[in-house]
Write a structure and sequence with these properties.
about 240 residues; about 20% strand; alpha/beta
């Protein structure tokens, strides 16, 4: 692989602009087989997690929802099935090119969204918080674009609290997933992804950050025993 593969092999995960560039290159590279690898490595649990995210968004049908770091459009498909009007936004052109949702698509940095203040009813984001260079800036940007009373639902990987599940999760995502990725897509990228959970603050820290950014009714939920986590909140 190019420069991105070199980044994933380092002991220290990339930061700042290096991280942004490497993440974009990585997702461009894995886009063609991204859906296949997701379904295989999660045993299709990712489908359930995304549907739960849309339900917990709890917006009326017809709402305009930005799906950020939208990838190949899985969440957009579920949002549209729920009667919403989603817009797909992703930094990776490769991912947008592989988008299957048929909704409007925009290539852009989700830390600087090209939309007016208070112009959308809600935001979803699936498995991307750990790939951002500045989570506080992202939460402030969500508060800027979501109208008062609007909702956000942010899904990402988690760390199981149960000792046995934690041990099994470490083995599976640290040893097995990189082999699946190497077989079906790009091994270097799937060596990075299990490590990237280290970027995420603790749940209580993310809850406090969202509250400082202007959100209320902030709720953190562990899904599937903590394999993933979901943050929901309402714009004050």
């Amino acid at each position: 692989m190019p420069t991105s593969s070199q980044s994933w092999d380092r002991e220290t995960l990339p930061q700042g602009e290096e991280k942004k560039r490497a993440v974009r290159e990585m997702f461009d590279a894995i886009a063609p087989r991204y859906d296949l690898v997701n379904r295989v490595m999660t045993f299709r649990l990712d489908v359930r997690w995304r549907r739960r995210t849309v339900r917990e968004l709890a917006l009326p049908a017809g709402s305009t929802v930005l799906d950020l770091a939208s990838g190949t459009g899985d969440l957009c498909i579920d949002l549209r099935r729920a009667g919403h009007e989603p817009i797909s936004v992703d930094l990776s052109f490769g991912m947008l090119a592989a988008d299957r949702s048929g909704v409007p698509r925009v290539q852009g940095d989700i830390l600087r969204l090209p939309v007016p203040d208070g112009s959308v009813d809600g935001v979803t984001c699936g498995f991307a918080l750990r790939n951002l260079t500045d989570l506080a800036v992202f939460f402030d940007e969500l508060a800027r674009v979501v109208r008062p009373g609007g909702r956000i639902a942010l899904l990402d990987v988690g760390i199981p609290h149960n000792t046995f599940m934690h041990w099994g999760n470490d083995i599976y995502f640290g040893k097995v997933v990189p082999k699946i990725g190497a077989l079906l897509s790009d091994g270097a990228a799937y060596r990075y992804l299990p490590k990237s959970v280290a970027y995420l603050p603790k749940p209580e820290e993310m809850v406090a950050m969202l509250q400082r950014s202007g959100f209320t009714r902030v709720v953190h939920q562990d899904l599937s025993g903590g394999l993933t986590q979901l943050l929901t909140a309402t714009r004050r």
